[in-house]
Design a protein that fits this description.
heterodimer; A: alpha+beta; Flavocytochrome C3, Chain A, domain 1; Methane Monooxygenase Hydroxylase, Chain G, domain 1; 5-stranded antiparallel sheet; 22 strands; globular; B: Ubiquitin-like (UB roll); 2 domains; 5-stranded mixed sheet; two-stranded antiparallel sheet; 8 helices; binds flavin-adenine dinucleotide; binds iron/sulfur cluster; binds FE2/S2 (inorganic) cluster
């Protein structure tokens, strides 16, 4: 398959505006005649569904949640980027573009990243207009802070609840449309498959989680905004229900899956404490603005932190990266934490943690100042660990957090299936091999508010649609496939709860496909994953009935797909014989332990094509060319 | 730690429902309340019994999905906590825990501890927004907001829509939830244009859904995981009166 990125011609600053002019428009009075399915109503989906309905399209929105406000986006803490340059510190669209591309270790498409930076300012305007209560300074203007990988203050925030406030903004716009009938919202519906008719995405098949009914829905286009697949690792900072089923089934119906191995491990999370643990909690990156990361210089030092004098502490990030210090990008900070703990310098009971210390900031400003900025995060830490982070440093360790990989999309956000658009974390675009902090919210909203509404219109205007009904053979077939899959899960009748098997999968992924990947480890992982899959299909216990709410059945379907995706993820990691961003292959590093890219051989997007059950996926390459920013070794020294 | 659990079981909306007793053993004091229920559910699955359905997702107190009555208290005995924030260390070893769903007429039970809270969404759909369509918004810094108002607006906006205020209220009143949204927008310049219309529409929908009246019981504030204050209800009342007068 040849991959056409459809990046428009012209200089980078002009591409998007030229493209907008060249796109075909749908006459306002005709828009009502088109229907759009939007699966997922997190930031990306809610903003898209609301904006499309405002334009006049007939929108059907789906979510497995009872309300759009429950989507995983709600949990984002730290902030959202935009190069407003309100701080007068030298920010610009070009700088955000540069930082994002470099932060992604030169594995993203230049034109997409530029467009993202270009529209991001409008997002802040839009959100303020909706009544999002961003933080303000004493003069009443918007306040900003800094995030990793940047030396300017461009991150807008609403306390430690930025994702919540942005999602509630998008949710309010969506609610308004639901209220006026522009959007029909289907709650507690899980999309289990995609219906492709004559090469075009024309509908979905869902399970109604309340009644168990398998339902089919038709539209002219389908938009997936279903979020990331971090829960493949079982323990992650993702919400418990976040899953990959929608994008995975779309992959099996012909959409390519790009860069699945680009997963992000976030450096500042509360360390794992026990076997019962069901998820990990993030401590926002914004804490690195004022917190200093350190470990004792002496390995195995058991003194309490306050008794370790200044000169016996190793502020290793400040030592290794004097210019960015504690604000190096996530991949770098995570890898360094793992490395120092592996060498035996870790702290706490498990020795798998480092300190994040606010003593200096408290001394410099005041406890109250810290409370105002980070109060809810400190409370959260206290609640979980029963320790007071104002009195002693926090203990943190990296955890799986975000997935840069996802379904391949072109510049118009359309996948390799005509009429299947993918937005937000579910697609692969923009972040390359590592995402900078505060950029996911930006990307989800850019896609939903300001990009998709144009590109989707262009597709509608250029395409002829046959009218269809759910008794079309293809709909019937997919409906039967889904029903069979559900019945197959219920028929396993083994001896292990689904979550126990998921845990095993997660452990393999974390140990061998996490922060330090090697050929040997990855090969071992492939073997173990296939054994776990076998175990699942023979020994999982999926209890209950199909005709009502069945939490075990929901979990089982998701885990079945995670296991297949885990294999592709590992496969991709094995094939990419270089280190870049979050993908760190032990064999490929510089003498200082930094990621060693191989631009000659791997400056491409790896887009995998499904070739059938049990068959090897086919690799398609979209070469990456850099006209504006020349790839260099990413230095944060 | 060991616990005896008395849990509400109800197959579906039509089923009458009943309490059933369970035992869980060896629970870590650091485990969360929901993790304790995970342990119970794995136990039930292995015994071929239907696991207890409960809503949850973020497990860090922000999505508003979780919501259980624990020993008669919405989100358990702690202050400013969602059910998922509750850790087992706050209970006594061997204690009996009575676990029920939110009980309110507008919240029909879907199964066991899962209720349907879409009535709250319908209140939002009636008017809980500023009608700013995508595109054309002025530069964000062109509308300054005093820090004071921004902070208070944010305090109100912190509501997670969990419904604890409603479950805790003897009248199943949704006033605190509605007041939080009305306050958030009433405090911002952007919210002024639709100020009257918004409060009226939201209150009308609230009544239509069958939520009760506020009788100044203040159970809502006591159980709210996000510390939303009843002073917002006072503002709601003022806003509502003001809207009616003109
Ligand atoms: C703890 C945490 C903190 C974060 N902090 C920040 C931050 O400060 N700044 C930042 O920029 N980013 C942050 N991120 C990342 C960011 O929050 C996410 O990448 C982003 O919100 C994803 O938005 P989304 O709309 O793509 O997906 P989601 O919000 O995950 O929404 C997915 C939607 O799809 C629905 N769905 C999924 N599958 C199906 C299906 N099969 N059928 C029906 N519906 C389905 C869900 O119900 C949901 O509505 C953070 C992430 C985490 C985990
Ligand atoms: S006001 Fe408090 S208790 Fe009521 S829904 Fe909001 S967060 Fe929950
Ligand atoms: S699970 Fe999200 S608030 Fe409790």
């Amino acid at each position: 398959m040849t991959l056409d990125s459809k990046v428009p011609d012209g200089p980078i600053e002009k591409k998007w505006s030229n493209h907008r002019f060249n796109m075909k428009l749908v006459n306002p009075s005709n828009r009502r005649k088109y229907s759009v399915i939007v699966v997922g109503t997190g930031l990306a989906g809610a903003s898209a569904a609301a904006s499309l309905a405002e334009l006049g399209y007939n929108v059907l929105a789906f979510s497995y949640h009872e309300s759009p406000r429950r989507a995983h986006s709600i949990a984002a803490q730290g902030g959202i980027n935009a190069p407003k340059n309100y701080a007068n510190d030298g920010d610009s669209v070009y700088r955000l573009f540069y930082d994002t591309l470099k932060g992604g270790d030169y594995r993203a498409r230049e034109a997409n990243v530029y467009r993202l930076a270009e529209v991001s300012g409008s997002i802040i305007d839009q959100c303020v207009a909706q009544g999002v209560p961003f933080a303000r300074d004493y003069a009443g203007y918007l306040d900003m802070r800094s995030f990793g990988g940047a030396q300017v203050s461009r991150t807008f925030y609403a306390r430690g609840q930025t994702g919540q406030q942005l999602l509630l903004g998008a949710y309010s716009a969506l609610s308004r449309q639901i209220g006026t009938g522009g959007v029909k919202f289907y709650d507690r519906r899980e999309m289990l498959d995609l219906v492709v008719v004559e090469g075009m995405a024309r509908g979905i098949v869902c399970r109604n989680l309340k009644t168990g009914a398998i339902e089919s829905y038709i539209a002219d286009v389908v938009v997936l905004a279903t979020g990331g697949y971090g829960n493949t690792f079982y323990l992650s900072t993702m919400a418990k229900a976040s899953n990959a089923t929608a994008i995975w089934q779309a992959y099996k119906r012909g959409a390519l899956f790009a860069n699945p191995c680009f997963t992000q491990i976030h450096p500042t999370c509360i360390p794992v404490s026990g076997d019962y643990q069901s998820k990990l909690t993030l401590m926002s990156e914004s804490l690195r603005n004022d917190g200093r990361i350190w470990v004792p210089k002496k390995s195995g030092d058991v003194r309490i932190p306050s008794q370790i004098p200044e000169d016996e502490r190793d502020y290793y990030l400040e030592r290794l990266y004097p210019s960015f210090g504690n604000l190096v990008p996530r991949d770098v900070a995570s890898r360094r934490a793992k490395e120092i703990c592996d060498k035996g310098y870790g702290v706490g009971k498990t020795k798998m943690a480092v300190y994040l210390d606010f003593a200096d900031a408290i001394k410099r400003n005041s406890k109250q100042w810290i409370e105002e900025k980070y109060g809810n995060l400190f409370d959260m830490y206290h609640e979980i660990t029963a320790e007071d982070p104002y009195a002693a440093p926090m203990r943190i360790y990296p955890a799986v957090h975000y997935t840069m990989g996802g379904l391949w999309v072109d510049y118009n956000l359309m996948s390799t299936i005509a009429g299947l658009f993918v937005i937000g974390e579910a697609n692969f675009s923009d972040h390359g091999a590592n995402r900078l902090g505060a950029s996911a919210l930006m990307q989800g909203l850019a896609d939903g508010y300001f990009i998709l509404p144009y590109t989707l219109g262009d597709y509608l205007a250029k395409t002829k649609f046959k009218s269809l009904a759910t008794d079309h053979p293809e709909f019937k077939k997919v409906n039967t496939d889904v029903t069979e899959r559900v019945n197959k899960l219920l028929a396993i009748n083994g001896k292990q709860p689904v979550s126990e098997i998921h845990k095993k999968l997660g452990k393999v992924m974390w140990d061998f496909v996490g922060m330090g990947r090697s050929e040997k480890g990855l090969k071992k992982a492939l073997k173990l994953i296939s054994e776990i899959r076998e175990e699942f299909w023979n020994d999982a216990k999926v209890i209950g009935e199909t005709d009502n709410l069945n939490i075990e059945l929901e979990k089982a379907g998701r885990v079945a797909d995670f296991m297949e995706l885990a294999e592709l993820l590992t496969f991709d990691a094995l094939h990419r014989k270089e280190s870049c961003g979050g993908h760190f292959r032990k064999e490929y590093q510089t003498p200082e332990g930094e990621a060693l890219r191989n631009d000659k051989k791997y400056a491409y997007i790896a887009a995998w094509e499904y070739t059938g059950a049990g068959k090897k996926p086919k690799l398609n390459k979209e070469p990456l060319t850099f006209e504006y920013v020349k790839p260099s070794e990413r230095s944060y020294k | 730690m060991n616990f005896t659990l008395k849990i509400w079981r109800q197959k579906n909306q039509k089923d009458a429902g009943r309490f059933e007793m369970y035992e869980v053993q060896n629970i870590s004091p650091d485990a969360s309340f929901l993790e304790m229920l995970d342990v119970l559910n794995n136990q039930l699955v292995l015994q071929d019994r239907d696991p207890v359905a409960f809503d949850h997702d973020c497990r860090e107190g922000i999505c508003g999905s979780c919501g259980l009555m624990i020993n008669g208290r919405a989100h358990g005995p702690g202050r400013k906590q969602a059910t998922c924030d509750v850790r087992m260390r706050i209970f006594d070893d061997g204690q009996e825990l009575v676990i029920e769903p939110w009980r309110a007429k507008p919240f029909p039970v879907i199964k066991d501890l899962v209720v349907d809270r879409t009535a709250m969404d319908r209140i939002m759909q009636a008017g809980g927004f500023i009608s700013a369509r995508t595109g054309g918004a002025p530069d964000a810094n062109s509308t300054p907001v005093t820090k004071e108002n921004a902070e208070e607006s944010m305090d109100a906006a912190a509501c997670i829509g969990c419904g604890a205020c409603i479950a805790a209220c003897p009248n199943s009143s949704a006033m605190l939830f509605v007041a939080a949204k009305v306050s958030q927008f009433a405090l911002l310049p952007q919210g002024q244009i639709e100020r009257k219309e918004r409060v009226q529409k939201m209150v009308i929908q609230m009544d239509k859904e069958g939520f009760g009246n506020c009788s100044n019981n203040y159970a809502c504030e006591a159980e709210c995981p996000k510390g939303i204050l009843v002073t917002h209800i006072a503002r709601l009342n003022r806003e509502f009166l003001r809207a009616k007068l003109v």
